[in-house]
């Protein structure tokens, strides 16, 4: 389980612990986030505090969600309750909406989420966080570069898949810069990237049934080699696809986010 000693803490592989140690990279990430005094922000996996320190310095107060009890004990020793609210537990189960308690229906979403995410749970955590898009102003994460490339991928490319469609449906996304393994202790095996995600306004989304959209996209990419005619058979027939100007002989990776939304809405219309 333990494979490296960092500041007296043995980094735990099962919690995806690679601690940022390059001060220039840390500064660049914080500059990219641009924290403003008094903003409502939560950091996922503060670890040994590489980003926590400069974030608290700029914000005054920060929320964190951390799973490792040893690291939680250190956080309590290091920061006061005025500076830091520690939420102990699994970010995959954490209700991020609960942090926006007093927010009324007409208020602009104000929650900002940041983190150098544990790479072993990157895809499930992104899907979990997407569920809070309504309450979020923006999110800035470090992830392995390969995942970020899938998040921002364009239709027709090898990286384009379910993650690309479902996140691009809900967020405007941008890759900020790459971070080499040497910026961490212990060094991960792969390159990392910083990605920014800003929820799109509700009126731009367009799917009448988002759960159905999710099922259609999952089916279309479930068997990447098969054509839409086969993968979407239970949702829509050839004529339905053709009516939308979509060739049933294509594979799922060729369709844009808008085309997936059009298919889902056509299915809703036909059921009505
Ligand atoms: N932010 C620190 C840094 O940049 O040096 C640590 C980043 S490290 C890649 C990931 C952090 O997420 C660790 O502190 C780890 O304990 C924590 N973590 C791992 N799985 C978690 C989970 N399911 N929920 C909350 N925190 C988790």
UniProtKB/TrEMBL annotation:
Coiled coil: none annotated. One of its GO terms (molecular function) is 16S rRNA (adenine(1518)-N(6)/adenine(1519)-N(6))-dimethyltransferase activity. S-adenosyl-L-methionine binds at residues 18, 20, 45, 66, 90, 116. It catalyses: adenosine(1518)/adenosine(1519) in 16S rRNA + 4 S-adenosyl-L-methionine = N(6)-dimethyladenosine(1518)/N(6)-dimethyladenosine(1519) in 16S rRNA + 4 S-adenosyl-L-homocysteine + 4 H(+). Residues 25-201 form the Ribosomal RNA adenine methylase transferase N-terminal domain. It is found in: Cytoplasm. Its EC number is 2.1.1.182. InterPro entries: KsgA/Erm, rRNA_Ade_diMease-like_C, rRNA_Ade_Mease_Trfase_CS, rRNA_Ade_methylase_Trfase_N, rRNA_adenine_dimethylase, SAM-dependent_MTases_sf. Gene3D superfamilies: Ribosomal RNA adenine dimethylase-like, domain 2, Vaccinia Virus protein VP39. NCBIfam families: ksgA. Belongs to the class I-like SAM-binding methyltransferase superfamily. rRNA adenine N(6)-methyltransferase family. RsmA subfamily. Specifically dimethylates two adjacent adenosines (A1518 and A1519) in the loop of a conserved hairpin near the 3'-end of 16S rRNA in the 30S particle. May play a critical role in biogenesis of 30S subunits. PANTHER family: DIMETHYLADENOSINE TRANSFERASE, DIMETHYLADENOSINE TRANSFERASE-RELATED. This is Ribosomal RNA small subunit methyltransferase A. The gene is rsmA.
């Amino acid at each position: 389980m333990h494979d490296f000693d960092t500041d007296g803490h043995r980094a735990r592989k099962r919690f995806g612990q690679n601690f940022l140690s390059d001060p220039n990279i840390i500064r660049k990430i914080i500059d990219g986030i641009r924290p403003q005094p008094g903003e409502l922000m939560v950091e996922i996996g503060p670890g040994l505090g590489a980003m926590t320190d400069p974030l608290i310095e700029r914000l005054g107060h920060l929320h964190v969600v951390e799973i490792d009890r040893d690291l939680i004990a250190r956080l309590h020793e290091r920061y006061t309750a005025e500076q830091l609210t520690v939420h102990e537990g699994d970010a995959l189960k954490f209700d991020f909406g609960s942090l926006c308690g007093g927010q009324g229906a007409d208020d602009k979403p104000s929650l900002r989420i940041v983190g150098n995410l544990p790479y072993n749970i990157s895809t499930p955590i992104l899907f979990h966080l997407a569920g809070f898009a309504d309450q979020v102003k923006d999110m800035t994460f470090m992830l392995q570069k390969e995942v970020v490339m899938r998040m921002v991928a364009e239709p027709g490319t090898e990286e384009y898949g379910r993650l690309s469609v479902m996140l691009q449906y809900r967020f405007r996304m941008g890759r900020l810069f790459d971070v080499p393994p040497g910026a961490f202790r212990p060094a991960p095996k792969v390159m990392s990237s910083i990605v920014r995600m800003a929820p799109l306004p509700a009126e731009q989304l367009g799917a009448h049934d988002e759960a159905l959209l999710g099922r259609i996209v999952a089916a279309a990419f479930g068997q990447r080699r098969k054509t839409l005619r086969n993968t979407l058979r239970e949702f829509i027939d050839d004529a339905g696809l053709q009516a939308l100007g979509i060739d049933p002989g294509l594979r799922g990776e060729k369709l844009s986010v808008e085309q997936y939304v059009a298919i889902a809405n056509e299915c809703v219309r036909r059921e009505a």
